[in-house]
Amino acid sequence: MARILVKDDDLVVRLSWREKAAVHRGSVRVPLAAVRRVTVEPDWWRALRGVALHGVWIPGVLCVGIRGNPGGQDFVAVRPGSPVVCVELRPTAPFSFLAVSVRDDVEATAQRLRRLAPDIDASTPWRQPLPVAEETETSWKELAVKTLR
């Protein structure tokens, strides 16, 4: 299972060796200043949004990798049956959202991130909805092209 750590001024998602092998990448690092909101999602499947772009998606076993949606790209490392720490990020970050099932106490991890991030948006304890792109006659074709890249 993945771990969320704070090293210097970065939030680090350290993956297990199996997760690294599945997604073909090492740890994920984002600046702590890019953290906008931290929430806990009790249902693991609600943390997944968009379509799978790269990674391993075995429903009921493991979902790890990059997912695409109209708001950008998300990095997820979730396991069924465990709550998920959800981290919304500002546009300067490489991802727009991180969803991670952690080994440690989920609430304690979320509280620690809220305390250490310099500029948390505390206006609402819930995640914000994804932006919805305006639909046109060609929008579905454009989405399909983006997904296949």
Textual characterization of the structure:
The structure is a single chain. This protein has 149 residues and is α+β, with helices and mostly antiparallel strands. The chain contains three helices and nine strands; from the N terminus they run ββαβββββββαα. The longest helix is centred in the last third of the chain and has 11 residues, at 106-116. Strand 6 and strand 7 form a beta hairpin. The chain has one domain (3-122). It has a six-stranded mixed beta sheet, covered by helices on one side. A three-stranded antiparallel beta sheet has the order 1-2-3, covered by helices on one side. It is globular. The two termini are 29 Å apart.
Mean pLDDT: 85
How many beta strands in the DSSP annotation? Answer: 9
**Global outline:** globular
Share of residues in strands: 35-45%
As a whole number of angstroms, the C-alpha radius of gyration is: 15 Å
In which order are the strands of the major sheet placed? 4-8-9-7-6-5
Helix-strand topology string: EEHEEEEEEEHH
Number of domains: 1
The portion of residues assigned to helices is 10-25%
* Low-confidence sequence ranges: none
- Sheet with the most strands, sense and barrel status: 6 strands, mixed
Q: Given the structure, what is the number of helices?
A: 3
Structural class: alpha+beta
Euclidean distance between termini CA atoms: 29 Å
